[in-house]
Each structure stands twice: as structure tokens, then as C-alpha cells.
Amino acid sequence: MQFAHLADTHMGYRQYGLTERENDFFEVFDQAIEEIIRERPDFVIHSGDLFEYSRPPTRALLTAQKGILKLKEANIPIYAIAGNHDVVMRKNALPPQILYKDFGLKLISPNQPFYTVGDVFIGGAPYASKYHAKQLVERLQSIEKSSQDYGKRILVLHQGIDRYIPYEYEIKIGDVPQSFNYCAFGHIHERVVDDFGEGKLAYPGSTEIWRSNEVEGYRKNGKGFYLVDISGNMPEIENIDLKLPREFIKETIRYSELQDELNRIKEYTNSLQRKPILMVTVEGGNFNRSEVYETLNQSLSETCLAVRSNYRPTAIKEDENPFEKGKEALDIKKMIEHNLKDFNSEKVTELGTGLLKELSDGDFKAAETIAHNFYEDLYDH
């Protein structure tokens, strides 16, 4: 018996405020659905963060609906849980996945903690914050008990574990029951496969590059989902890689070689079918940040979808980049003031109106995400 395991598709995410990047996430999801149907597994597991927001934009909802309907037409059931981005932080609120109940999606929730397919048990729980870790552990113990009489047991969770993200975890590795044949996790965007208890613990990672720090992992391990065979004593896991719509390019160049390097980068980016995202760091020398910023954008804006720049000058004047002050503590106020000099005022307005809307609606998780995206954008700028 085989199943597809994917997670963290984050549909509706408009990275860097770009419609093109929002479309990229939709395109990769569509590609994943087509690949799953081509592989023809017995079922699909989605381990959370189907969407970027608990109130997804209309196109995200429609893209998910079309994909789930395609699976239904191919007689491939899909089981899913809500991730932290899917969860509305209000009592008794329902995640958006509930909309697809009549389209074949089987939502694993506190009210329906498990499903069975013959001798296969599929159980789990939606995302729980570290403040509710005790209740989650109790729920896991109950799920484990319910699974005991089944030959194959799959646990589905969307949680960070201390073994993999020691400073941002919600539960400890010792809290995860070890009696399951396969622990289908979501939340961590890098691919992870580990021996665990009587089987395997796996994160398939995100299907697209959600943050710039995922680029190296993507180059090493790819992006996509897992095809898992649980017919034998130990699950066999195969990487199914997806082709991302555009490149993420990281470059570090010396200021003394700036023009030659820009010509080289421009020649390469001009050869690509789609404009890439370029993340460039200029280092060495005593230069004016604003002038270099203008040079980068004038040279590369036509061939790149976005240019994200950072600077590491050798000598720093008092009004230079507050990110680069050696061992001195960062002055957050100065950091923000410095970056906002060149920052799009529309983005600041978008931040304010977005926070006002979500906080007025009581959606604190969405407000947190908006603020996080803004400050990452500010830093990359």
C-alpha cells in the first residue's frame, strides 16, 4: 500500500508582495496534484498549512477545490489536518479545509481524530501551540491507544520538535508516540526522514520556497512530497521532486568588482525563461548603501522579478547600516529607521491596514504572520 505525503503548500502567500510569487505557489500545488495522480497512490496525507492564511483569498480556495476534485475523480482519498497557518485563533473556529468535506477531503480533527482504511489507521491532531502541549500529549496518548489493533498505523501532526528546531519547538521528541509505523509531520520546511520507534518520522518540507533561508536546502534536497510504501515491515520513502517555476539566486559580490559582477549576473538572468528572485550581498570597501542599491536595481530590475539586497561594507560610518556594527547590540529603532529610508511607503500602509483588519477580527495568528512577513521584507531590503 502506498500513499503520498505532502505539507506546507501555503497557498495564497504573496511573497514580497508579488502577484507572480502567489501564482508560483498555485502552480506548484497544481503540479503536485498532477504528479500524485500520475503515481496513483492509495491515498494522500496533507500535514497542515494547506493555506497561508486562515481566511484564504478566493483563488487559493478555488485552486485547492480543483485539486481535491481531481483527486476525487481519480478515486484517491485525501486526509488532512490544520496547520498553524490554517488555524483561526478563536474558540470553536473551523479551519478552511472543512469546506472540502463534500469534495472528498477527510479532516482529522478533535471531533474526528482518526480514520481507518481496512487494516490501516490514520490518526492525528491539528496544530497546537507550545502553551497547549500538555493537552496535545494527552490527545496523542488517546490516539495511540485507539490505533493498537491495526496492522499499519500512521500519525499525522503539524508540529515543531526539539530535535529539529531546538529554539522554536512546540513538543519534545519524547512526547511523540513510538508505536506508529509512519509519523507524517508538517511545519518544518526542510525535508527530514528519521528512524523513529517502530518506523519512520518524516517532514516532506514545503512545496515552494517560503523563506529565503530555504534556498540552500532546496538546492541540496529539492522540494516536493514523499511517496511512501508501507507494505513491508519498514516504510519505504521516495522523494517526488517538483519543478519550481523560477530560480532563487544567491550571490555575494565584492564592491570593487561590482560592475563586472552585475554584467555577469545580468547575462545569466536574461537567459532564463522566467525572471528569478535575486538575493545579493555586496561586501568590502567603503561605499554608500543608497548608491549601490540604485545601481543594483537599475542594472537588474529588467531581468529579475525582485532584487533583495544586503550590505557588508568594510568601514561603517555613523549613518551606515545598523545591521553591521560588529559585536554591538542591534538598535532596533535605528535599524527600522535606516531601512525605511528606501522602503516603499505603500508597504507600510499595507502593514497598518492589514494589522488593523486582522486584530479587529480577532485573528491574532494572521496579524502575527503579516508582521513577520513585513519585517523579513524589511531585513532583506
Blueprint of the fold:
Elements: E1 2-6, H1 19-39, E2 43-46, H2 58-73, E3 78-80, E4 105-107, E5 114-117, E6 120-124, H3 133-147, E7 152-158, E8 182-186, E9 192-196, E10 199-203, H4 215-221, E11 224-229, E12 236-241, E13 248-254, H5 258-270, E14 277-283, H6 289-300, E15 306-312, H7 332-340, H8 345-361, H9 364-380
Parallel strand pairs: 1-2, 2-3, 3-4, 6-7, 7-8, 8-10, 13-14, 14-15
Antiparallel strand pairs: 1-11, 5-6, 9-10, 11-12
Helix pairs in contact: 1-2, 8-9
Description:
- The chain folds into 2 domains: 240 residues, Purple Acid Phosphatase, chain A, domain 2 (4-Layer Sandwich), CATH 3.60.21; 95 residues, no CATH class.
- The strands form 3 sheets. A 6-stranded mixed β-sheet has the order 4-3-2-1-11-12, covered by helices on one side. A 6-stranded mixed β-sheet has the order 5-6-7-8-10-9, covered by helices on one side. Strands 13-14-15 form a 3-stranded parallel β-sheet, with helices on one face.
- About 2% of the residues have low confidence.
- It has 381 residues and is an alpha/beta fold.
